[in-house]
Write a structure and sequence with these properties.
4 helices, GMP Synthetase, Chain A, domain 3, about 110 residues, three-stranded mixed beta sheet, 3 strands
Length: about 110
């Protein structure tokens, strides 16, 4: 039962992290990075350190550092509440981002057809 409770707690923490990441807005597109499909995953280690695996809309995006900083700021309250430890935002290029990764909400907001 303890293992099940721990697994449920991990999933709830991940859900809170995902929810906070919806507050990180891509400054060029004006839509959050979750709905844009830029966040590929959120992982927690045994010390509740968070690793966000994400991509950007283009390899030469000059705003990479800014978005990584925004992620850390968005998760600051969870850190202050000791729900999570350190935060790391890892940018990957595989799989490459495409409009197919966007949520319906993002497509509507940006006027992108399916």
């Amino acid at each position: 039962m303890i293992v099940l409770a721990e697994a449920q707690e991990i999933e709830e923490t991940k859900e809170r992290v995902w929810a906070e990441l919806e507050n990180v807005i891509d400054p060029e597109l004006g839509v959050d990075i979750v709905n844009l499909g830029l966040v590929y995953g959120v992982d927690l280690d045994d010390d509740n350190n968070v690793a966000v695996t994400m991509t950007l809309t283009s390899m030469g995006c000059p705003l990479a550092g800014m978005i990584q900083s925004e992620i850390k700021m968005a998760l600051w309250d969870l850190q202050e509440a000791n729900e999570i430890g350190e935060v790391e935002a890892n940018i990957v290029w595989d799989p490459p981002w495409g409009k197919d990764k966007m949520s319906r909400y993002a497509k509507i907001a940006l006027g992108v057809a399916d």
